[in-house]
Amino acid sequence: MPQFYPMNWMIIFSSILLTLFLLFIMMYYLTQMNLNKKTTSNYNFMKNWKW
User: Fold this and answer.
1) Which residues have a Cβ under 8 Å from the Cβ of 9 and sit 6 or more positions away?
2) What parts of the sequence cross the membrane (predicted)?
3) ∠ CA 35-41-18 to the nearest 5 degrees?
4) Cα–Cα dist 48/51, whole Å
5) pLDDT (tens digit, 9 = 90+) per residue, 7-47?
6) Beta-carbon neighbour count of residue 31 at 10 Å?
């Protein structure tokens, strides 16, 4: 059954994209909450962020 391999790869790829998108939304939401608490600008937060 080799015709099912592309579908499996598409499902895996879409799931990875979904998880990355959810992580990005959570990170953005947490940064917005921190910015609202500290009342600082987005540029200062990104500058102080340890990558």
Assistant:
1) none
2) 6-30
3) 55
4) 9
5) 788 889 999 999 999 999 998 888 887 766 655 555 666 66
6) 14
One-letter amino acid at 23 equals L
What would the DSSP string read from start to end of the chain? -GGGHHHHHHHHHHHHHHHHHHHHHHHHHHHHHHHHHHT--HHHHHHH---
Q: Model's pTM, two decimal places?
A: 0.49
Residue type, 37: K
In the numeric block, the tokens 């939304």 are attached to 25
Q: Which amino acid is at 33?
A: M
Write out the two tokens for 48: 């102080």
